[in-house]
Design brief:
Length: about 350
């Protein structure tokens, strides 16, 4: 079985993960563009409620044991429980990509809804069979969680039929967006590193508003972008992003050699400088492949590395004022008294109280 070093690309939705995947594509890196969320298996195996009673799985001679390094915990699974868990974590997304022979290629909310794609020739049935064979048809009956991930990506490597070469050493893939999956992965996967992409919170909020607007347009609604931007300001979205960014900064202190924090702004506007730092962190050779976007080793559309597409969205000055108040709190008006707005102050207080009441028991 071919074991690939695992490079996890993480960050909030719309933070630029797909852009970095395309920059890291090529040379000795095999990139999985399908957000199949395989790292969610950790929660499914060790934290979620079991599908069957433990005594039934222990008594099944076809069951195997999976061990967690970080939790010091063992679980039993058989083929049926493995397949159920796989389909709970977007296994079907990869199956769909294989069926339609396409791999995602979107870099903004707009291109996401246009379903842009690359050509992807993949034997999903062979992939599925390889996973089962390498887990259940060998004498070994105990695996660490990392070994299950290695088997998954070994099968992925083996069954991608139109990949450019067979000399890959690393597998680059997306993490689920939630922070806990990064923490779990850094603790469980010895042969791995993670790159977390922050993005300016204003850009994230614009992208999220654009996504909501496009979804409504598909149903025939035509509403100004400011409506959706305001909706987000009234939610807990910004609070959650600020909290997550702080948690990632703390996680970096614990995993200095395994976690690198960058930003979409650095990747786009300081490409050469930032990619050299990322290449060094990953111990990659300094090849020109990493300074232009490519798919499967072939150059691809570079419009998304020249500018950040969603940043062009224009938001009213009044909502930008409220946005800054949501991000910085009352210190924004203290530091910039000329920006004071009584209406936005009242609105801000209402949002804080409303969200406190709604989420205090959640």
């Amino acid at each position: 079985m071919k074991k690939l070093f695992k490079v996890i690309i993480s960050g909030p939705a719309a933070s630029g993960k797909t852009t970095l995947l395309h920059l890291l594509d090529g040379h000795q890196n095999l990139v999985n563009y399908h957000h199949d969320k395989v790292l969610m298996l950790f929660d499914k195996f060790f934290i979620s409620n079991p599908i069957y009673k433990l005594k039934d799985l222990i008594g099944d001679k076809k069951s195997i044991i999976i061990k967690s390094r970080s939790l010091k915990k063992n679980v039993f699974i058989n083929i049926e429980t493995l397949k159920k868990r796989l389909y709970e974590i977007s296994y079907g997304r990869l199956e769909s990509g294989a069926f339609y022979k396409e791999s995602p290629s979107h870099f903004s909310a707009e291109s996401f809804h246009k379903s842009q794609s690359h050509k992807f020739v993949f034997d999903f049935e062979g992939f599925d069979k390889n996973i089962k064979n390498d887990i259940f048809k060998i004498k070994k009956k105990t695996f660490f969680f990392e070994e299950i991930i290695d088997i998954y990506f070994s099968a992925y490597f083996k069954n991608w039929k139109n990949k450019r070469n067979n000399n890959y050493k690393n597998i680059i893939f997306k993490s689920p967006n939630e922070r806990r999956y990064i923490t779990n992965s850094l603790g469980e996967l010895k042969k791995s590193k993670c790159i977390y992409i922050k993005r300016d919170i204003l850009g994230l909020t614009k992208s999220r508003a654009s996504d909501l607007q496009i979804r409504d347009k598909n149903y025939g609604k035509k509403i100004n972008i400011n409506h959706y931007f305001k909706r987000i300001l009234f939610s807990k979205y910004i609070d959650n992003i600020v909290k997550t960014y702080a948690e990632i900064d703390n996680l970096k202190l614990e995993f200095k050699s395994k976690l690198y924090i960058t930003s979409l702004e650095k990747i786009i506007y300081e490409t050469n400088h930032e990619m050299k730092k990322i290449i060094s962190f990953l111990n990659l050779q300094n090849k020109e492949d990493y300074f232009f976007p490519s798919y499967n080793g072939y150059k691809s559309n570079k419009s998304h590395v020249i500018k950040i597409n969603d940043d062009k969205i224009l938001i009213s000055n009044n909502l930008i004022n409220l946005y800054k108040l949501r991000v910085h709190g009352l210190s924004y008006y203290i530091n910039y008294p000329s920006k004071f707005s009584f209406i936005n102050l009242i609105t801000y207080c209402y949002i804080i109280i409303k969200n406190f009441i709604i989420y205090k028991n959640v």
